[in-house]
Specification:
alpha/beta; globular; single chain; about 50% helix; 9 strands; about 260 residues; seven-stranded parallel sheet; Rossmann fold
Length: about 260
């Protein structure tokens, strides 16, 4: 029996890198991928300092280019002979700006990467998993997936709401197939995707820090939960969510008695 294999897009840093680390800890073969060759090689070097290179493969991939996503599947499949789990994690955040202040190129990137890149990955993985007879695809939610709105996150939130709708609809289409589709929700994780858009001099900074210190978590806290959920799941349509409404409510209540400091 072949060792199982997980591929994570956007895994040269942040949550994606954390997922790759946890899959390796759980004995999986892992393929990592970043947008540039430099970022992907850097992440690969970090991982082989801790894990065997026999279990690790890397290839850079711009998920907005369909052919590159196809090449990523083909190279990873050739390396390990199968892909059991494909995670569409590649994503980009929004600068702390109102929609009308954004350059066209900025919101084009968000839509192209967060929506089209995710759809490309889903289509290519699904078609090939149908051929191999099994597999699971997970799409990464973010702020806006549940319909919440916030100023200066309009485009990012739109992209994640679209991701949620697309995935839930495609889950219904794939119901009678041999491929599992699901959603991952990491909550508020301390990565540059979360912290970079908020300028230190922004008037929203104080409120942002307060919320992060209540609801935020480190990558190494969240990713073991997500990976365990994916490994154990056999159900189509599963949403693996770290920060549930119940947990968030409890965090706000506990903040009255205990202060958490993840960010200053």
């Amino acid at each position: 029996m072949k060792k199982k294999h997980a591929l994570i897009t956007g895994s040269s840093r942040g949550i994606g890198f954390g997922l790759a680390t946890e899959f390796l800890k759980n004995g999986y073969n892992v393929t990592i991928s970043g947008t540039t060759e430099a970022s992907t090689k850097s992440a690969y070097q970090k991982l082989i300092n801790q894990f065997s290179s026999d279990n690790l493969f890397s290839q850079n991939c711009n998920v907005t280019k369909y052919e590159e996503v196809e090449n990523l599947w083909n190279a990873a499949f050739q390396k390990f002979g199968q892909i059991d789990i494909w995670v569409n994690n590649a994503g980009v955040g929004q600068a702390n700006k109102y929609f009308w202040e954004m350059q066209k190129e900025a919101f084009d990137d968000i839509i192209d990467i967060n929506i089209k890149g995710m759809m490309y990955g889903t289509k290519i993985a699904f078609e090939n998993m149908q051929k191999q007879g099994f597999g699971a695809i997970y799409n990464m939610e973010g702020f806006g997936s549940d319909g919440r709105k916030m100023k200066k996150l309009t485009v990012y939130g739109t992209s994640k709401k679209a991701l949620n709708y697309f995935t839930e609809s495609f889950i219904k289409e794939a119901k009678e197939t041999n491929v599992i589709l699901g959603l991952l929700s990491p909550g508020m994780v301390m990565t540059d995707l979360l912290t970079d858009p908020i300028d230190e001099n922004s008037p929203e900074r104080k409120q942002f820090v307060k919320i992060v210190n209540i609801l935020g978590d480190k990558v190494e806290t969240v990713t073991p939960f997500l990976v365990k959920g994916m490994i154990n799941n056999q159900k189509n349509g599963k949403a693996i969510r770290w920060l549930t409404t119940t947990k968030a409510t409890g965090r706000f209540f506990m903040s009255l008695f205990r202060k958490r400091k993840l960010i200053e």
